[in-house]
Every structure is written in structure tokens, then in C-alpha cells.
Amino acid sequence: DQQVKQNSPSLSVQEGRISILNCDYTNSMFDYFLWYKKYPAEGPTFLISISSIKDKNEDGRFTVFLNKSAKHLSLHIVPSQPGDSAVYFCAASAGSGGSNYKLTFGKGTLLTVNP
Amino acid sequence: DTAVSQTPKYLVTQMGNDKSIKCEQNLGHDTMYWYKQDSKKFLKIMFSYNNKELIINETVPNRFSPKSPDKAHLNLHINSLELGDSAVYFCASSQGFRLAVEQFFGPGTRLTVL
Fold it and tell me: HSE (CB half, 13 Å, CA atoms) of B84?
């Protein structure tokens, strides 16, 4: 049962343009969402997060948008750079109900930014 | 200076063998995790320890046994390896395990069972 879905396995964009990575979730108990970035042969690294009390969080070139009614979040990267080429994982956590805050990850989206 | 390190990086072994993967973190964190990334690419939590106490134990075969000798180390021992155990295993650590805590991942151990 995939509670966090990243339906696009890959995305290719030109340098300088916007990259939009999408994530959908099914568990209405999720109230905290994170994006991780992973380069080959390395572990995932934290990129940006958003709490369910917000609908937007920005950090430099990275912005995450949350639409709770649609159970959808997206990561925008503007402008995209070749160094952004990596696999991006969406993850979600439920803070209430004694769920011990474990992270549930999506399958990832491979972003390729072409020079 | 590596924050979360795992050894070995690659492990190739025969079915039925017993093997261990070691994880160490030098971040001073009190919580450590093991994740499995299988062929379908999902990263799934297996175990988590906080101050050497088991706090997350997902539905994992009891052939998998984590051991935390101290807060900086979390090792994973696997008995009677099966073909389906082939995966990349990631160790991670965090300070606490509250909702907004950031987890730091190691580089992964690619286990191949022949």
C-alpha cells in the first residue's frame, strides 16, 4: 500500500528553467512532509520540509507547496542547475496518535537538468 | 569528516550465510535508524533506536537483529540470508525523534545475495 506516491519516475528540464516535482499521499494523518535529495552512491540528504499548518515553505531556490485538500505537495526549483540532477524523494510523517514519527517515503523522481 | 558511515559499502554473499552491517555516526545524535531500499526503490524503515532503546520495529523477519552497543553505533545482523534480502541498506541518525527532526543518512550498503 503506497501511502506516498511519486508518479513521475523521471523529469528532464533545461538549465535555468523551473523544475516541478510532484508527490501525492493517501494517509490523512500525515502532518509533516519532507523532501530529500539523493546523488548516486550517496545517502539521501534533507532538502526542505513543510508542516501541515502551512501551504508554502521557501528556502532559496527551493519552494515546497502543500495542498491538504488534494493531498498533494510539490517541490519547485527555480532556476534549475545541472548540480540539481539527482533523485528526489518525498517523505511524510504523522505526529499524532503515537505513530513515533516514522518517515514514509515515495519511490523518488530522477531529475536531470541539462546544460 | 564523514557524519554517518557504514561498512561495508558492498557485500556479496551466498544464500544461508549470516552477515553484519555496521553503522557509526559522529554527530552526537541519540537516535539511529535502519532503512531498506529494495528493487522497487522504496525506502522503508526497519528499526529505530533512541538512546540504545528500540523505538521502531517494523514488520521485519526476525532473521534481522539490530544491536546498539552505544548511542553512536547501530549494527544490523542478518541470519540465514535469502535472495529477497538483496537491497541497499541505509543507516540514518537524528537528534531526537520528534516530528520535525532531520535525519542524516549514511551512504548505504549494497547487499547482494546469490
Answer: 4
Contacts of A2 in chain B (CB under 8 A): 42
Nearest CA in chain B to A92: B99
Report yes or no: B15 at the A interface, CB cutoff 8 Å.
no
Could you give the CA distance from residue B28 to residue B26 in angstroms, rounded to a whole number?
6
What are the cell numbers at B18?
549470516
Is A39 touching B (CB cutoff 8 A)? no
Other Cβ atoms less than 10 A from the Cβ of B109: the count is: 22
pLDDT tens per residue across all 114 residues of chain B? 679 999 999 999 999 999 999 999 999 999 999 999 988 888 999 999 988 888 888 878 999 999 999 999 999 999 999 999 999 999 999 998 776 678 999 999 999 999
| Shortest Cα distance, chain B CAs vs residue A113, angstroms | 21
